[in-house]
Design goal:
By secondary structure, the protein is mainly β. The protein is built from 4 helices and 27 strands. GO terms for molecular function: protein transmembrane transporter activity.
Length: 441
Amino acid sequence: MKKILLFLLFPYILSAKNILISDKYNILDEKYLSFENEEDLKRELNKLTLEMLNKGYVSSQITQVNGEICVKPGYINKVILKEANADIKKKLLGLESLEGKILNISDIDKIVSEYERLENNDIKIEIRKTPNKDFYSDIIVNNTVKRKLKFGVVASYTDKFKYNVNLSILQPFYLNDKFSTNFSILNKSKYVGLSYSLPIYSSVIDLSYFYTTQKIKEHGNSTSHEVSLSVSKDLYKDKLKNLSLETSTKLNISKEYVSDIKMKDKIYFDNDVNLEYNNVHVFKNSILNTNLQTKVGLGYMYNKELKTQHFPVTFDVNANFKTKYLDNITQVFASLNNNNDSRYMFSKDINSINDIPLNITDSSYALSTCFTLKYPVTEKDILLQPFVQLAGCVAKGEKKYINLGMGIGIDVRIKDVFAKLKYSIDKEKNKSLGIQIGINK
């Protein structure tokens, strides 16, 4: 193509030193070809072609049309999905909107990011020139979907046993969707949760239902029903800079009854903005995985029974660092105007096997950190990972709260089966022995 263009431009070489390039779509920064001879012209064409590629215009070209040197954009003709429910998924993911646009590598990133939401997608993308249609290309997405099932059981013991059973199915309808459910028995309370999420036009819609029942000595049984609808969307995503910005909006309706008498009727409306940074640093003999998250939330809480309203504000910073032998999780939390509502408070439960080994009461302000020292041993398909945890927290609710804790355990993984055993104790002598068993298939 360059040789043909040089031939077409040859008459200009003897008569001009600057050629204006017609660029109606502002693909190039430089609008002139400046040269003294044919070698200069080759160099300038290479530079401008490289500029287009660096900007992601992988199918656009510099060419000659009717004696004029111009940038000819390359367009997207069709986005073709080769998988189950391709037509429905194409509409749900909003990929039809790419057709007719100038092709940029960011469009490919958009497609990849939609499929990366779930781990059981295996995609290969091909850009193929459209037959008999100059400057048009088809984007062909070949995706192999393996319906994935995750099942887990968590049991822990303090004064009594506590259980949690959870199940999730990735892509039950092959639409990049997810269904999950969990059931818990915690002392005198029982909890059931159901959730279904579906991506629609670069957003993810999640519909959830929660049911909780608890025995109260003096008043009988307390039950609550909760329905939640949330919409999350990526506002910004840059893989090269490892940055992403996401917003999430949630509407939540909660009703609580004691002995069939309605006690609480609340409406929650929350909007969160989350900035996340991920990176992998490679040193001589080690790899450091870094994950930083900053979340700011503004909520609206209305109690229909008391006819009161509040506007809670939350600020949350999470810093996770992982190496082969040492992990650290540090969290800073602050909450204002929360009316002592637990959903806007900071809390950690020693009885949850995935939490740090501390029992922390609900607090408006908190700083917590946990170090995990581990020693992974791999033999064929078996991973054994004994670990020791040390944790500390400074928090403030009605009064200042300081706690220290430690945990010891082992993590075992055999192909798709995993198990975890952990014993925890904190400064206040809260103890917990927990076991977790699951299948990730």
